[in-house]
Amino acid sequence: MPGPKRPRREPTDDWEQLQLFVGSPEQETYELLRPIVLFGQTPRARARVTGAAARTLTRKANRFDAEGMTSLFETETAPAQDRRTLPAALRQRIVNLKAEYPAFRPHEIAEICRRRNDCRVSHKTVQRVLDGGLAPTIASRRYPPYAQMPDPAQRRLAIVHLYFDGWNITSISGYLETTRTRVYETLHRFFAEGFAGMDDKSRAPKDSARKVDLKAMAAVRRLQANPELGEWRISAALERMGIHLSPRTCGRILAQNRALGLPRPSDAEPHEPRPMPFAATYRHEYWSVDVKYIEDHRLANPKPVYVISILENYSRALLASVLSPRQDLTAYLLVLRLALREYGAPAAIVSDSGSIFKANQAKRIYKELDIEKLQIDKGQPWQNYIETHFNTMRRMTEYDFARAETWIEMRAIHDRFFIDYNVQAHYAHRDRTDGKRSPKAVLGWVHGAWCDDAEIDRLFRLRSHRVFDHGGYLRYKRWRIYGERGLAERTGAVWLFGEVLTVAFDDDTLAQYHVRYEPDERRIQALTEGRLFETRYPSPQPFLWELADVEWHTVLRLDPYREQRHPVTTGVQERLFPLDREA
Fold it and tell me: If you average pLDDT over residues 275-297, what whole number do you get?
């Protein structure tokens, strides 16, 4: 009788014994679940017996109830698709973006994918897609360069579309070959105005900032009190006040004011411009000098007042100018000395045929300083640059001179003109490329031939230095001559030429006297016809009452020097009697 196919064993519920008897994992799983599914034992109680996890027993029991014996066997299922793999459409889009704009970086493409497809893609994933060798499916650009699009609205809409596609500012500007500033301006305009703001607009400001305000118009109105001032001089005067208006703008304001009744300037005579024979090619090549008459004034003395001026032809700068009651050699030498001391000597001096410019004393100075004396043709004043300057002076000062009542007012008008003319823009320099417009700026620091102060004093021998005493007098050749009490203990100058003696301080004429000489024509016999001028240096202590000529003498003759008396020795007193030594 054959033996049994299977060994016989005693039935048992001991889990450890059962583990030794089972022959497959499926049978072991069944023995593990059998008390639960047959007898209703709880997974927790079965877990305490077998040592398996209660949750594992629960999951397998539920699966057994659902699938039966099949759940005991492990079935081979297809692995789940990797969710990290990008969709084919997205990978193709990444490749197309790189082909359309090769300057794209991986993180920029990743940002476009996030904004356009709502898909968070790492820049490393984008780089792997680009390295995968997928071929692009586009053959041309979506938009041509910015400048090649004829419609302005389409140009701006291209920027907007690319921005909402996820492109950044730098990529948009590089792709459309335009500036980032334009991209920013277009986007700001779109967000502010929408699609209606994509068309071209007028560049004219809706509410432009105007330089012409009430302050500027009031300043022009005040300056226009002098009707001879034109648009160029008005513009230059306003610039010194801190108001910057072009000559054309000033001209329009002047025309409006004249239309309202303000006086008009005198009409200029038409003339053809002619080449100037003494046009300078460098600084201090030519100086021009002349005398201007001022006859319209309100001074007590109705005689004309004279302005003697020296002009530098290259820069049109006014080097020296003096307001004088006389047009004599002394006044001219006073101006010439000021110019030489401040700016050195020029190469040549140009003047008309006036006698003060051709005097022997002046010629000697020209010769000593190696200055060439040139003269314009007779009847041709236009050849002298200073005539044009005097025309400018007429327009700027004639209105004020006509209302001046004192010599101090005349001097103040002249001094103000001297400063304004040199620092205001000059019409002759309007086309300079170095930005220098005023005569002072063009002249700069350049000087002529150097002149030592001692040499100048030697040449101007008509001039003598004297110190004013407490009464305002100075001593000169045994005379005590009055100048100005307000200059006590200060050094003035005495100019003596011919029969005229002038007392001056700097460039101010204080007094003038007529000189009568002794028969030897050297010593002064008398000083008469004294004429005192109002000055800028009045004494702080006025006279207690007005002094008449009898009470106050402006000229006092000093006593001659007394000869010194030396004691005369006639002899020595002899002794009256001999002295007795023994006594």
Answer: 90
- Global pTM reads 0.54
pLDDT exceeds 80 at position 463: no
**Cβ atoms of residues 380 and 289 within 8 Å:** no
Say if CB 340 and CB 289 are below 8 A apart.
Answer: no
Give the mean pLDDT of the chain. Answer: 84
Angle, in degrees to the nearest 10, between helices 88-100 and 106-117: 130
Q: Name the percent of the chain lying above pLDDT 90.
A: 16
Distance CA 468, CA 489 (A): 5
**What's the order of all strands across the beta sheet hosting 372-375?**
317-324, 305-312, 286-294, 348-351, 372-375
pLDDT(484) > 90? no
Give Cα 292 distance to the centre of its chain.
37
Pair 427, 340: CB distance under 8 Å: no
Determine how β-strand 479-482 pairs with β-strand 555-557: antiparallel
Domain limits, the chain: 18-72, 89-198, 229-260, 286-443, 462-542+549-557
Q: Look up residue 509 and give its amino acid.
A: T
3-state secondary structure 284-349: CCEEEEEEEEECCCCCCCCCCEEEEEEEECCCCEEEEEEEECCCCHHHHHHHHHHHHHHHCECCEE
The CATH-assigned architecture of domain 286-443 is 2-Layer Sandwich (3.30)
CB-based contacts of 500, cutoff 8 Å, min separation 6: 326, 328, 330, 512, 513, 514, 515
